[in-house]
Amino acid sequence: MAMSSLDRQHIIAGPNFNRWLVPPAALAIHLCIGMAYGFSVFWLPMSMQLDYPDMTACRDIGFFNALTTTNCNWSVSQVTHIFETFIAMLGISAAIWGAWLEHAGPRKAGFIAALCWGGGLMIGGIGVFMHQLWLVYLGCGVLGGVGQGLGYISPVSTLIKWFPDRRGMATGFAIMGYGGGAMIGAPLAVALMTHFEADGTLGVATTLIIMGGLYFLVMSAGAFGFRVPPTNWQPAGWTPPDNAAENKKITSRHVHLDRAWKTPQFWLIWAVLCLNVTAGIAVISMASPMFQEVFGARLLGLAGDASPSAEQIAMIAAAAGGLVGLISLFNSIGRLFWASLSDKLGRTNTYSVFFILGILLYCSLPTLGHMGLAGLFVIAICIILTLYGGGFATVPAYLADIFGTQMVGAIHGRLLTAWSVAGIAGPLLIAAVREAQLKSGMAVNLVYDRTLYMMAGLLLIGLICNLMVRPVKEDVTMSDDELAIERAQSHEDNIASHAISAARGSFGLLGVIAWLAVGIPFLIGLTIALQKATALFTG
Asked: How far apart are CA 514 and CA 501, in angstroms?
């Protein structure tokens, strides 16, 4: 009986439900899995878990030996691959199980995501405790990555169906949580590691176990808060847009996943997301060192060729740390802002703004660096990060416009393989070009110029792909019979009669509690991020 409550047919909204209870449920899940962006707080402590390793035996230990050693500390480079693993698994799991999610419903998918992400962190904590790196990879990387993928896409289709009048805003709310999850999770992880410090070693294992348990509870609460609307449900007083010229890309029909991913529209939007993310994630991966190397001593008012003292170097690093905090903030805010604006501008126009503005900003960064204009450099980086986050939040609504809403969650899951590719390509590209230019003897403050111009070139290609997107042909869409079969598999075939009366309830006390439950932690994380960011202006 308990497990049956997870099934899609048992979570159809009744007359007293209010659709504004769905976004906080989605935020509860995304704020937890969004800790992915804050996982770097674990890398250095993970590399110093053993007090007295055998330095002779551990010298130049390879990656595969590091997976099972109990006598040698792991290197930072060996543990950072955990991030690449769960980002890759995010895209893979979303692509594999996206169609299943449409039939199973968001509650079951969200609960399984809670088990995988929360349980994966707990297994990873046990791996740190036992000093078995392979177990950390299995828990945090593989199992956690599956939780990331299912948790990321589980609210998307549901939100789009609840908010046909505000598709961008609805998905922006949820995906904003993924961008802001690190603002909450990273300070919490640092505080817990410090609290459980023993004999000079930070409590990484205990922290991962506690956070895994906490995330499981919060994500489960979010999953059980999901309801789905009956077939053909519409908000009171709203009518679907007609196919006027400005709405010609918004289809009134639906495309099956099996056909959608074979269309040129899918691959053009795939390229749009991949190129936007490649450019943005390259900046995220190198933001702190880039800021320090481009400006260096000039951040403290010294001459560019001055040699700062140890204390001044620490002040420069603190300023760079403030930039990282701002990146998380603007990444999160951009997701809601741009996705909501896309409801007014249209998805194609919004992505055109992303690419044109991004090209101008990337091309301006080298000049701002050469001129020593650190403040304008930071502003440009922050705007770039809003475009990065906005690209993630706007793409589900873009897919719904082009392919319809019936299988948008599954199509979105398949599209997220673009993130997996970009998550590897962006950091590799900027790091490789930087290293090559350093070896050629280029000054350290100039090594990012060529990469930034390359990112602008990628955005130009993305702009062209975006402008090539056209409505799908009629013969690609599902027939009425095919749609009926698909809805029967999703247990929607016998509930259309409730569409008129469903979800007309008031917001009420429950709504206030739900929004406060996700809003208060977000505001706390926001406050901490702003406090850290002050180092940019007071350091």
From this structure: 23
Sign of torsion over alpha carbons 521, 525, 530, 534 = positive
Residue 319: count of CB within 10 angstroms of its CB: 24
**Rg, the chain, Cα only:** 24
Can you list the alpha helix ranges (DSSP code H) found in 346-416?
347-371, 374-403, 408-415
Residue carrying the six token digits 């502003």: 379
Q: Please tell me the pTM assigned to this model.
A: 0.87
CA 276, CA 263: separation in Å to the nearest integer? 20
Residue 201 pairs with which residues in a beta bridge?
198
- Compute the distance between CA of residue 165 and CA of residue 478 in angstroms, rounded to an integer: 23
- Do 453 and 366 touch, CB atoms closer than 8 A? yes
pLDDT band at 289 (very low <50, low <70, confident <90, very high): low
Kindly state the tokens that stand for 132: 């078995």
Beta bridge pairs of residue 198: 201
Q: How many C-beta neighbours within 10 Å does residue 8 have?
A: 21
In this structure, the number of other CB atoms found within 10 A of the CB of residue 116 comes to 26
Scanning 105-132, the segments in alpha helix (DSSP H) are 106-130
In 3D, which of 88, 92, 86 has the Cα closest to residue 120? 86
DSSP 8-state class, residue 52? S
Mean pLDDT calculated for residue range 301-324: 57
333: left (phi > 0), else alpha (psi -120 to 50), else beta? alpha
408: burial class by Cβ within 10 Å (0-12, 13-18, 19+)? Answer: buried
**What percentage of the chain has pLDDT greater than the value 70?**
87
12 three-class SS: strand
Residue 435 within any structural domain of the chain: yes
* Domain co-membership, 290 together with 357: yes
How many CB atoms are closer than 10 A to CB 51? 9
Structure tokens at 365: 């960064």
CB 429 within 8 A of CB 277: no
> What CATH number corresponds to the domain at position 126?
1.20.1250.20
112 Cβ partners below 8 Å, 6+ apart? Answer: 147, 150
Q: For residue 415, what are the domain limits?
A: 248-495
Q: How confident is the model at residue 183 (pLDDT cuts 50, 70, 90)?
A: confident
Both tokens of 447, joined, read 């090594």
Q: Which of 80, 339, 521 lies closest to 529 in space, CA to CA?
A: 521
The residue whose two tokens read 């930034």 is 452
Residue 235, pLDDT above cutoff 90? no
d(CA 474, CA 248): 13
Contact 222, 71 (CB under 8 A): no
Q: Are residues 420 and 507 in the same domain?
A: no
- 199 by Cβ neighbours in 10 Å (0-12 / 13-18 / 19+) ranks as exposed
CB-CB contact of 273 with 418 (8 Å): yes
Please count the structural domains in the chain.
2
